[in-house]
Automatic annotation (TrEMBL):
Transmembrane segments: none annotated. Belongs to the KHG/KDPG aldolase family. InterPro entries: Aldlse_KDPG_KHG, Aldolase_TIM, KDPG/KHG_AS_1, KDPG/KHG_AS_2. Its EC number is 4.1.2.14. GO terms for molecular function: (R,S)-4-hydroxy-2-oxoglutarate aldolase activity; 2-dehydro-3-deoxy-phosphogluconate aldolase activity. Keywords: Carbohydrate metabolism, Lyase, Schiff base. This is 2-dehydro-3-deoxy-phosphogluconate aldolase. It comes from Microvirga arsenatis. The keyword Lyase applies.
Length: 221
């Protein structure tokens, strides 16, 4: 990378590190109705989870993220399922604080490397991690975490890539999140178990707050 991109990467990393301190658990959220967005975010914040990932998987996603950003300032909103440079631009235009992807194409890595937006590209292999590192991204999303080799895979990657930090997502739940967070190269862990689609559809906000509190306790225990 040239000097300007190196400086941008350093600034982006510092900002992302500051955001991740609000973790270490990131609810992965899929919203089908905009009217559920604000009460869901408030329920999660009440349970101690401020760092949110709103996935771009539904037509309601962008408007839902915008509503949370506007009405729940305590929430730190990230946009997930960023697949293209246009998705990254969309996340930035919405006012998201950071963005994540399940993987990363060369075009997406290049666009993200030239953006000030904190970005967590997805990787599942050593080669994909090398591509992310080459573009200045030292914090990556390990996805799908369990299917891609689980905890043994991250332990193995720690050897040749001591500088890499991971946010595993995919197959993580209340039973194993503590084991993932115990790894020294894991800075946060993402999962949808805290706010399942069925709970959101039922508007079971108290249940979601309780699950959030349990997740925070599990992470700290």
């Amino acid at each position: 990378m040239d000097q300007d991109l190196t400086a941008l990467a350093s600034s982006r990393d510092r900002t992302l590190a500051d955001l991740l301190r609000a973790g270490p658990i990131v609810p992965v959220i899929t919203l089908e109705r905009v009217e559920d967005a604000v009460p869901l975010a408030r329920a999660l914040v009440a349970g101690g989870l401020r760092l949110l990932e709103i996935t771009l998987r539904t037509p309601a996603a962008a408007d839902s993220a915008a509503a949370i950003i506007r009405e729940v300032p305590e929430a730190i909103v990230g946009i997930g399922t960023v697949l293209t440079p246009k998705d990254l631009e969309r996340a930035q235009a919405l006012g998201a604080r950071y963005a994540l992807s399940p993987g990363a194409t060369p075009d997406l890595l290049q666009a993200a490397s030239r953006s000030a937006m904190p970005f967590i590209p997805g990787i599942a292999t050593a080669s994909e991690l090398m591509a992310a590192l080459a573009h200045g991204f030292q914090t990556v999303k390990f996805f799908p975490a369990v299917a891609a080799g689980g905890i043994p895979a991250l332990k193995a990657l720690a050897g040749p890539f001591p500088q890499a930090r991971f946010c595993p997502t995919g197959g993580i739940d209340e039973k194993n999140v503590k084991d993932w967070l115990a790894l020294p190269n894991v800075v946060a862990a993402g999962g949808s178990w805290i706010c399942s689609t069925s709970d959101i559809r039922a508007q079971a906000w108290d249940t979601i707050t309780a699950k959030a509190k349990q997740a925070v306790a599990a992470a700290q225990g």
